[in-house]
């Protein structure tokens, strides 16, 4: 019964979202305020219905109701409760429902932020958002229905894919989806502005919190996915330039550009047309990512044909929303008036340079990801574009951008002083350069690019810190004055500095990867293996039984030199329901570095063991968290508090209204 | 199975288990082994999804790793090894595509886009030296303006 209620609510939500899409547009064209306001209640009702539907699916998972095909295929009665819960989005159908849930939640938040938005803009944005929701609800209902029943009901489920039974992957999809879907709001606002034919700083102020929110979550989602790959896949890699990774990285790059261009628009009323285009492109890339992941088109052109209905449907969605919005842009953009003049050397110009580089970086990933597909369709030739290509093209595009970042950051609006900006960063640059040179001398014979990378990262961290310090110290005399100045700095200034320093930290972690070392050997109990600074001694190999898996656990003692650090466990699991093996790496965190052990096959009475020394590797993800924290801090800036949607409380209050 | 993985995690890779290079494959000469690892990380595991043979535990990847090490032990240069593998499996096996007529756009795209973007921004720059033309008044605004002017004259 619960399942049918959920199914019915989903169908109703489709109807409501069609109303949300069409009636406000009709109202806008007839100048009828009452009709235009229908979008507000439709958005709230739509969210309540989808939430009900999602709750029904969660309930069937938690109760292990295997009469539901989706539950049967992706759950098992012996699973821990947490994984029963996260299995809901551990599959195609459920994750789509989560996607739609987040989409309608954002719609409801926009509907509730009524005082801060111009009514015409809000009506248009809700209409555009309703259209997106309608498309994805139809996709879910017609091609990927999570509520399909099985008769007779099987007694036991097939279990969730074992490598997804992991806390990291449990929270990774929601984070990523909040990011993807958050950009649908900026898209909706862009479409609304185009329909309205008017755009101003008010628009930028309304849109910026959504962009920041989406960007913050996307940053966390990508970092989480990367860390998951690092510890779960078992060979210590953390970024593979896989098409599916690239699919999430492209919206991140475009979204980063968008955050910067909306700043220019908000402060100086310039770059309007470009910002609108960027808002459209960012969500288009999110949709492309969804298409890539859902259709499997990138695995090979042929795997697309294995499930043509889904692939075709999502391709149609993609073509409609990307093509439609770009057509609208071509038609209406000339109506938008440009404003805000600035000199070639100014903060605005620096942000234009930032956008050119970020757009190029994004396009590089785009071309590299889709080129093999296009080439195969046009000529039949098969080529591979992998990590070596991206390292050779992406890095040279990004390095100049990062080198210029601290200088651009210290240029004034309207008309800046290049020499002065360079001088202000001279100290940071000098310290970073000396550090890099010292590292080169210290690690002579080792990789040369790594110290330069560390220097670049350091330059970014110091540049961000000095910029803040200067704002606090300048013209203030004595500690109390400085303290009050520090408190008086807008939170967005702190946020910006943190985000930029976060990139620097990540770069240091990435560069330091060049110093990692690896050793492989067959070990018998009592034998040792050394990689870099770490040594492990294999103590014992034991069998162990988990709730839904059997494991072979190897116990090690970890040493650094002669110093005993910690006991360490690595294991190989076989999940019984699917007879699928996974590896669980043993990781010891040693300040910012990690020792990483994983197991291979047994050979000649011993066990194949890999040991890695990964210096400073945690900085990669710490940097990402610092970036996200910067984004969140900017989000709480005073000037958004009026415009920012009120979260949590109104959303909860909206539910009983149904 | 594989599709489900792809559908779920944005990081979905072909096979979950690790352990590419096995201990029995490792060459005694560390310099040679280092070269073998470098070459392997640029060769695609043909039956996997976007994985290098260095990362993959597929049997075919193992065969290819052994082949690379065999050629290196026989005294081949890095380039000779790559040529040998490409002659057998085609350009598809290279994760870094060669520069040729088919890939010229791929390799030049970042450069062209950067240049195009910079040129576009430069042409569209509007400094104080070249003030943008004020937008012409609409008919409605023109009427109101004339009305106001007339009022003033009266």
From TrEMBL, chain A:
<dbReference type="InterPro" id="IPR003568">
    <property type="entry name" value="Cyt_c_biogenesis_CcmF"/>
</dbReference>
<keyword id="KW-0812">Transmembrane</keyword>
<feature type="transmembrane region" description="Helical">
    <location>
        <begin position="96"/>
        <end position="112"/>
    </location>
</feature>
<dbReference type="InterPro" id="IPR002541">
    <property type="entry name" value="Cyt_c_assembly"/>
</dbReference>
<feature type="transmembrane region" description="Helical">
    <location>
        <begin position="394"/>
        <end position="413"/>
    </location>
</feature>
<dbReference type="Pfam" id="PF01578">
    <property type="entry name" value="Cytochrom_C_asm"/>
</dbReference>
<keyword id="KW-1003">Cell membrane</keyword>
<feature type="transmembrane region" description="Helical">
    <location>
        <begin position="273"/>
        <end position="292"/>
    </location>
</feature>
<keyword id="KW-1133">Transmembrane helix</keyword>
<comment type="similarity">
    <text>Belongs to the CcmF/CycK/Ccl1/NrfE/CcsA family.</text>
</comment>
<keyword id="KW-0997">Cell inner membrane</keyword>
<keyword id="KW-0472">Membrane</keyword>
<comment type="function">
    <text>Required for the biogenesis of c-type cytochromes. Possible subunit of a heme lyase.</text>
</comment>
<feature type="transmembrane region" description="Helical">
    <location>
        <begin position="6"/>
        <end position="28"/>
    </location>
</feature>
<dbReference type="InterPro" id="IPR003567">
    <property type="entry name" value="Cyt_c_biogenesis"/>
</dbReference>
<feature type="transmembrane region" description="Helical">
    <location>
        <begin position="492"/>
        <end position="515"/>
    </location>
</feature>
<dbReference type="InterPro" id="IPR032523">
    <property type="entry name" value="CcmF_C"/>
</dbReference>
<feature type="transmembrane region" description="Helical">
    <location>
        <begin position="124"/>
        <end position="142"/>
    </location>
</feature>
<feature type="transmembrane region" description="Helical">
    <location>
        <begin position="425"/>
        <end position="442"/>
    </location>
</feature>
<feature type="transmembrane region" description="Helical">
    <location>
        <begin position="616"/>
        <end position="636"/>
    </location>
</feature>
<feature type="domain" description="Cytochrome c-type biogenesis protein CcmF C-terminal">
    <location>
        <begin position="315"/>
        <end position="638"/>
    </location>
</feature>
<feature type="domain" description="Cytochrome c assembly protein">
    <location>
        <begin position="89"/>
        <end position="295"/>
    </location>
</feature>
From TrEMBL, chain B:
<keyword id="KW-0732">Signal</keyword>
<keyword id="KW-0812">Transmembrane</keyword>
<keyword id="KW-0408">Iron</keyword>
<keyword id="KW-0349">Heme</keyword>
<dbReference type="InterPro" id="IPR005616">
    <property type="entry name" value="CcmH/CycL/Ccl2/NrfF_N"/>
</dbReference>
<keyword id="KW-0479">Metal-binding</keyword>
<feature type="signal peptide">
    <location>
        <begin position="1"/>
        <end position="20"/>
    </location>
</feature>
<comment type="similarity">
    <text>Belongs to the CcmH/CycL/Ccl2/NrfF family.</text>
</comment>
<dbReference type="InterPro" id="IPR038297">
    <property type="entry name" value="CcmH/CycL/NrfF/Ccl2_sf"/>
</dbReference>
<keyword id="KW-1133">Transmembrane helix</keyword>
<comment type="function">
    <text>Possible subunit of a heme lyase.</text>
</comment>
<keyword id="KW-0472">Membrane</keyword>
<protein>
    <recommendedName>
        <fullName>Cytochrome c-type biogenesis protein</fullName>
    </recommendedName>
</protein>
<feature type="domain" description="CcmH/CycL/Ccl2/NrfF N-terminal">
    <location>
        <begin position="9"/>
        <end position="149"/>
    </location>
</feature>
<dbReference type="Pfam" id="PF03918">
    <property type="entry name" value="CcmH"/>
</dbReference>
<keyword id="KW-0201">Cytochrome c-type biogenesis</keyword>
<dbReference type="InterPro" id="IPR051263">
    <property type="entry name" value="C-type_cytochrome_biogenesis"/>
</dbReference>
<feature type="transmembrane region" description="Helical">
    <location>
        <begin position="104"/>
        <end position="122"/>
    </location>
</feature>
């Amino acid at each position: 019964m619960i399942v049918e209620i959920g199914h019915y609510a989903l169908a109703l939500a489709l109807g409501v979202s069609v109303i949300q899409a069409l009636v406000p547009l009709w109202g806008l064209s007839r100048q009828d305020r009452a009709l235009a306001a229908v979008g507000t209640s439709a958005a709230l009702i739509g969210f309540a219905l989808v939430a009900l539907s999602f709750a029904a699916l969660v309930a069937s998972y938690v109760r292990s109701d295997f009469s539901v095909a989706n539950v049967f295929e992706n759950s098992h009665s012996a699973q821990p409760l947490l994984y029963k819960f996260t299995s809901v989005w551990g599959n195609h159908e459920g994750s789509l429902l989560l996607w739609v849930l987040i989409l309608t939640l954002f719609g409801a938040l926009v509907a509730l932020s009524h005082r801060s938005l111009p009514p015409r803009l809000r009506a248009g944005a809700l209409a555009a958002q309703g259209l997106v929701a309608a498309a994805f609800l139809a996709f879910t209902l017609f091609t990927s229905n999570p509520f399909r029943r099985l008769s007779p009901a099987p007694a036991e489920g097939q279990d969730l894919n074992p490598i997804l039974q992991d806390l990291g992957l449990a929270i990774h999809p929601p984070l990523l989806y909040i990011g993807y879907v958050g950009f649908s709001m900026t898209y909706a606002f862009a479409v609304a502005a185009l329909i309205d034919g008017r755009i101003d700083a008010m628009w930028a102020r309304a849109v910026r919190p959504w962009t920041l929110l989406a960007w913050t979550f996307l940053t966390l989602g990508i970092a989480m996915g990367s860390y998951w790959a690092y510890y779960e896949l078992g060979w210590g890699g953390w970024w593979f330039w896989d098409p599916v990774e690239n699919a999430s990285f492209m919206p991140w790059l475009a979204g980063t550009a968008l955050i910067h261009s909306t700043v220019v628009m908000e402060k100086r009323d310039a770059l309007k047309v470009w910002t609108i285009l960027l808002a459209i492109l960012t969500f288009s890339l999110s949709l492309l990512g969804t298409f890539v992941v859902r259709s499997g088109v990138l695995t090979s052109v042929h795997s697309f044909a294995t499930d043509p209905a889904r692939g075709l449907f999502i391709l149609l969605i993609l073509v409609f929303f990307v093509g439609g919005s770009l057509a609208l842009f071509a038609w209406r953009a000339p109506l938008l008036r440009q404003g805000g003049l600035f000199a070639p050397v100014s903060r605005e110009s620096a942000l234009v340079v930032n956008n050119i580089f970020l757009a190029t970086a994004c396009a590089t990933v785009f071309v590299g990801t889709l080129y093999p597909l296009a080439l195969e369709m046009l000529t039949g030739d098969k080529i591979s574009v992998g990590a070596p290509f991206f390292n050779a093209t992406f890095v040279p595009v990004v390095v100049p951008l990062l080198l210029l970042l601290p200088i651009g950051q210290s240029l004034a609006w309207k008309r800046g002083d290049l020499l002065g900006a360079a001088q202000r960063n001279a100290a940071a640059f000098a310290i970073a350069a000396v550090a890099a040179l010292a590292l080169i001398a210290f690690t002579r014979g080792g990789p040369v690019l790594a110290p330069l990378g560390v220097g670049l990262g350091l330059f970014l961290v110091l540049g961000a810190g000095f910029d803040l310090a200067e704002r606090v110290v300048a013209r203030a005399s004595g500690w109390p004055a400085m303290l009050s100045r520090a408190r008086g700095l807008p939170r967005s200034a702190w946020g910006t500095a943190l985000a930029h320093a976060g990139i620097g930290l990540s770069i240091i972690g990435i560069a330091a990867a060049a110093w990692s070392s690896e050793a492989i050997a067959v070990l018998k109990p009592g034998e040792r293996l050394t990689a870099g600074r770490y040594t492990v001694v294999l103590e014992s190999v034991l069998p162990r039984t988990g709730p839904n898996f059997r494991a072979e656990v190897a116990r090690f003692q970890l040493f650094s030199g002669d110093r005993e650090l910690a006991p360490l466990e690595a294991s190989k699991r076989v999940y019984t329901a699917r007879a699928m093996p996974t590896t669980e790496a043993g990781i010891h965190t040693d300040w910012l570095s990690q020792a990483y052990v994983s197991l291979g096959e047994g050979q000649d009475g011993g066990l194949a063991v890999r040991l890695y020394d990964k210096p400073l590797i945690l900085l990669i993800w710490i940097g990402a968290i610092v970036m996200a924290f910067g984004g969140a801090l900017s989000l709480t800036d005073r000037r958004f508090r009026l415009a920012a949607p009120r979260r949590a409380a109104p959303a909860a209050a909206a539910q009983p209204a149904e | 199975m594989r599709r489900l993985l792809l559908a779920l995690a944005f990081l979905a890779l072909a096979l979950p288990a690790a352990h590419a290079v096995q201990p029995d494959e490792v060459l005694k000469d560390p310099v040679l082994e280092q070269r073998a690892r470098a070459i392997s990380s640029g060769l695609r595991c043909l039956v996997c999804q976007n994985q290098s043979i260095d990362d993959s535990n597929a049997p075919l990847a193992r065969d290819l790793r052994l082949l690379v090490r065999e050629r290196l032990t026989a005294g081949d240069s890095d380039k000779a090894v790559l040529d040998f593998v490409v002659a057998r499996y085609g350009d598809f096996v290279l994760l870094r595509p060669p520069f040729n007529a088919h890939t010229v756009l791929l390799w030049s795209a970042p450069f062209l886009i950067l240049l195009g973007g910079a040129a576009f921004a430069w042409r569209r720059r509007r400094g104080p030296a070249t003030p943008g033309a004020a937008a012409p008044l609409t008919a409605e605004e023109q009427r109101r303006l004339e009305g106001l002017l007339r009022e003033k004259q009266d």
